[in-house]
Amino acid sequence: MKSSEDIPRAETTFQRVGVAGAGAWGTALAICALAAGRDVKVWAREPEIADALTSGGGNPVFLPNTPIPALPASTDIAHLADCDAILLVAPAQHLRATLKSLAPHLKPGTPVALCSKGIERGSLKLMTDVLAEEAPHASPAVLSGPSFAIDVARGLPTAVTLACPDRAIGDAWLRSIGRPHFRMYWSDDLVGAEAGGAIKNVLAIACGVCEGMGLGRSAHAALIARGFAEMTRLGVKLGGRAETLAGLCGLGDLVLTCSSPQSRNMSFGMELGRGKSAAEILSSRKAVTEGAETAPAVVAVAKQFGVDLPICEVVLDMIEGRLDARSAVDRLLNRPLKQEQE
């Protein structure tokens, strides 16, 4: 795989880049694309955020106290109609609705990089499947990896996977928004990149529960390792490659999300571990906790394919109120002993 600095600069770039979604991650990606010399436009659902971004007032809701250059933003998704490529950053469970609005404004073949992580509840579709259904005339890519929005917004070193089956379009993405501090590595494995991003959010909740209960670093490390085994089992069954899941968009993202309360998923788990209910925690949050939204779909897909995900299953039972944290831990610890690779 090549990083952004390995690609010849004389090739095609996407000069006009649209960002659909103005949460923390969408705003950070817009900053990154602007720093790479692109002409950036942003679609925001909230009028107050669109106004603040356009006027140079930053994003006080999702990236407070962060200097952000003025970014042309609108609540009208047609604002992105003349863009050469789109970074689609709507939350996973709202992606289909966003695409229904965006699709009529996309020119045939427009590259669309999916930047949210999850599996759609109900349909149990991956995000690329949703894109294929709602905007079949778009050219798909997946951007995923260990990347906190605030780190990217501040220009701190970050590395991610850009999965795209069309190598030329993938290389154009790398040239268009890659930077020395935002290293992008190309892959053609869309499913592997998607699966890693979706499953790791659920596993991060389990690591947060471990932290909230004070179970120690040994238990935390064990959860990451056994969680990675679950991620690999399901990701490969869905059609992804094990080596993709062992890279930035799988293991790398898992380690980051499971290791810092800065992660919304881990901090959600920490509160569960301290005895709060899922409903109580989620009602107090402005930003989406993707792991809580995606857990039912991850477990349902695993059952559909006959894949054993004991950690993800207890997380779902905690979210839906069938288990408290202590009972969840006891259930995992009392599972039958077996060979590690099973």
List keywords for this structure.
342 residues, alpha/beta, N-(1-d-carboxylethyl)-l-norvaline Dehydrogenase, domain 2, eight-stranded mixed sheet, 15 helices, globular
Number of strands: 8
> What is the CATH third-level topology name of the largest domain?
Rossmann fold
By CATH reckoning, the class of the largest domain would read: Alpha Beta
Number of helices: 15
Kindly name the structural category: alpha/beta
Instruction: Give the CATH superfamily of the largest domain.
Output: NAD(P)-binding Rossmann-like Domain
Summed up, what is this model?
The chain contains 15 helices and 8 strands. With 342 residues, it is of the alpha/beta class.
Give your account of this protein's structure:
- This protein is α/β, with parallel strands linked by helices.
- The chain folds into two domains: 4-188, NAD(P)-binding Rossmann-like Domain (Rossmann fold, 3-Layer(aba) Sandwich), CATH 3.40.50.720; 192-333, N-(1-d-carboxylethyl)-l-norvaline Dehydrogenase, domain 2, CATH 1.10.1040.
- Helices cover 48% and strands 11% of the residues.
- The protein has 15 helices and eight strands.
- The chain has helices at 24-35, 47-55, 95-102, 127-134, 149-153, 167-177, 190-212, 217-238, 242-245, 248-257, 264-273, 278-283, 290-305, 310-319, 325-333, and strands at residues 16-20, 39-43, 73-74, 85-88, 111-114, 139-144, 158-163, 182-187.
- Strands 3-2-1-4-5-6-7-8 form an eight-stranded mixed sheet, with helices on both faces.
- α7 (190-212) packs antiparallel against α8 and α8 (217-238) packs antiparallel against α10.
- The protein starts with 15 loop residues before the first strand and ends in a 9-residue tail after the last helix.
- 52% of the residues are buried.
